Amino acid sequence: MPIERLRQPGNRRFGNELPAQLQLVDGALRLSVNAFAIDDGHEITLIDTGSSNAWHPTMGFLPQALMEARIAVDRIRTVAFTHTHLDHIQGLILPDGRDGFPQLGRLLVPRLELDMFRSEARLSRFHDRAQPLDPGQHLGANIEAIAIPGHEIGHTGFRVTRGGETLLVWGDLVHVPSLQFDRPEVAWEYDADQGQARATRLQILALAADNAYCVAGAHLDSPGIGRIFRTETAFRFEPL
Ligand SMILES: [Zn+2]
To answer: 113 C-alpha to center of ligand 1: Å?
Structure first.
């Protein structure tokens, strides 16, 4: 994956021309992976689930993070995915093979990615439980799914509103925070449609900045939530 590929000194695509803004950790790109729990007072909706033990050994700490946030997994009845890449869906199953969310009643998967989800053998016991999720669908009084096209065919965000405030959970709109706010035109190797992802990124960043939305990103560094501001040439992110 990109982390390893960036390390290669002879990498054709990046070589010695890594953009100056890019912050590397021991010569590698750090990819934070977040999931977001939305508590409306009586039910908790979880957006994405992390990668469990299916990818990098430094990932898969969602159960510990929920414990730290004092969220009992039994309170999570709805899980919704922004898209079906492994770092978002594999947390349905714990490393020991048990269900991550024993009281799960509703599993929402972007309609266009239902087949992709059902091709994940490790998650076979969830294949029949997956329900299609469409843009415009309301998950509750305060959560609405919205299309954020580009990164994957069904890539979906969630608009959460309360009072006059809006939180936009934007999934994989940004993968490299040290670079892509300042240069939102830079594409990510694993965007399924880089041109569309670029256009969407510019549009959503402008929307968030101009409306003072809070934003939450799957690959923003901790705390993963903040606000967007315009700069002379692009945008900047201020964590909460
Ligand atoms: Zn991702």
So the answer is: 14
In a domain, 50, yes or no: yes
Distance from Cα 32 to the centre of ligand 1, integer Å: 9
Q: Is residue 14 part of a domain?
A: no
Domain limits for position 159: 32-239
What's the pLDDT score for residue 110?
A: 98
Enter the tokens of residue 95: 């490393």
Q: What is the CATH number of the domain that holds 222?
A: 3.60.15.10
Main-chain phi, psi angles of 80, to 5 degrees: -125, 140
Domains held by the chain: number: 1
**Spacing, Cα 230 to ligand 1 middle (Å):** 25
164 Rama sector, left if φ>0, alpha if ψ -120 to 50, beta otherwise? alpha
pLDDT value of position 16: 56
Measured CA angle at 43 (ends 213, 61), to 5 deg: 75
In a domain, 23, yes or no: no
Distance (Å) from CA 83 to ligand 1 centroid? 8
**Mean pLDDT of each 10-residue bin along the chain, 240 residues long:** 41 61 83 94 93 90 95 96 97 96 97 98 97 97 96 98 96 96 92 97 98 98 96 97
Ligand 1 centre to CA of 209 (Å) is 22
CA of 219 to the centre of ligand 1 (A): 7
Phi, psi at 10, each rounded to 5°: -95, 10
Q: Is residue 165 a part of any domain in this protein? A: yes
